[in-house]
């Protein structure tokens, strides 16, 4: 039987879980942009509120690290995981913000691939939220990081298709520039989810 001097401090796992649940809220809000007659300003404002809550969670996490003598796993890994979860939320907020500020939802239709990318992010968010509570036992996590990495590859494929559409001549040059910026944030969010999964894998390997 393995014995560990590590404490089973529940506050860290609770903060990771809350941060991941906010990512689900973020992707659900982005999915609202596909609905007819959606209030884009409202979606953007609510995304900003979720992002502010995520920032607060990150501050709580860092404060907890600095006031805890022995952490459940490596202090550096706790910092990294908390920071990466916050990075994902920043990218999700940027997507909603850019779509609103650039007025892109006023187009006759957003590219199909953009909605497909949001769907991939939604799947990654739900996987991440389901995985965070399992950090406490370090069990049943492998399927999470494997599937999250698979989804990142799917996101890369969709992003390439989106770029092909943007440069096909279907949109005017200014709209292409605006949507390319949105596409970059979508891809960055997808990559950031993979970075979270890779960090969880690293932690699990260290603690096994």
Structure description:
There is one protein chain. The protein is mainly α. Helix content is 76%, strand content 0%. The protein is built from six helices and no strands. The chain has helices at 10-32, 40-67, 75-101, 112-131, 142-166, 173-207. Helix 1 packs antiparallel against helix 4 (112-131) and helix 2 (40-67) runs antiparallel to helix 3 (75-101). The chain is elongated and about 55 Å long. Residues 1-8 have low confidence and may be disordered.
Q: How many beta-strand runs? A: 0
Sum up the overall morphology in one term: elongated
Number of helices: 6
Rg, rounded, reads 18 Å
Cα distance spanning the termini: 12 Å
Proportion of residues in β-strands: under 5%
Helix and strand element order: HHHHHH
Counting helices, strands and paired strands, the structural category is mainly alpha
Uncertain runs are: 1-8
Give the quaternary arrangement of the chains.
Answer: single chain
Average of the residue pLDDT scores: 91
What does the largest sheet look like? none
Q: Bin the helical content.
A: over 70%
What's this model, at a glance?
With 208 residues, the chain is mainly alpha-helical. The protein has helices at 10-32, 40-67, 75-101, 112-131, 142-166, 173-207.
Keywords:
about 75% helix; about 210 residues; single chain; mainly alpha; about 0% strand
Task: Produce the secondary structure layout.
Layout: H1 10-32, H2 40-67, H3 75-101, H4 112-131, H5 142-166, H6 173-207
Helix pairs in contact: 1-2, 1-3, 1-4, 2-3, 3-6, 4-5, 4-6, 5-6
């Amino acid at each position: 039987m393995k014995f560990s001097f590590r404490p089973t401090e529940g506050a860290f796992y609770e903060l990771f879980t809350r941060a991941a649940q906010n990512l689900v809220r973020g992707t659900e809000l982005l999915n609202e942009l596909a609905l007819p007659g959606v209030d884009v300003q409202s979606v953007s404002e609510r995304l900003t509120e979720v992002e502010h809550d995520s920032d607060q969670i990150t501050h709580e996490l860092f404060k907890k690290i600095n006031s805890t003598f022995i952490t459940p796993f490596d202090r550096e890994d706790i910092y990294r995981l908390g920071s990466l979860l916050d990075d994902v939320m920043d990218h999700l907020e940027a997507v909603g913000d850019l779509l609103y500020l650039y007025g892109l939802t006023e187009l006759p239709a957003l590219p199909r691939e953009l909605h497909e990318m949001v769907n991939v992010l939604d799947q990654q968010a739900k996987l991440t939220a389901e995985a965070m509570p399992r950090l406490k036992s370090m069990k049943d996590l492998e399927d999470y990081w494997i599937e999250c990495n698979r989804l990142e590859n799917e996101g890369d494929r969709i992003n390439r298709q989106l770029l092909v559409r943007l440069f096909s001549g279907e949109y005017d040059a200014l709209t292409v520039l605006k949507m390319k910026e949105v596409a970059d944030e979508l891809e960055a969010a997808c990559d950031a989810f993979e970075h979270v999964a890779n960090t969880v894998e690293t932690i699990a390997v260290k603690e096994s």
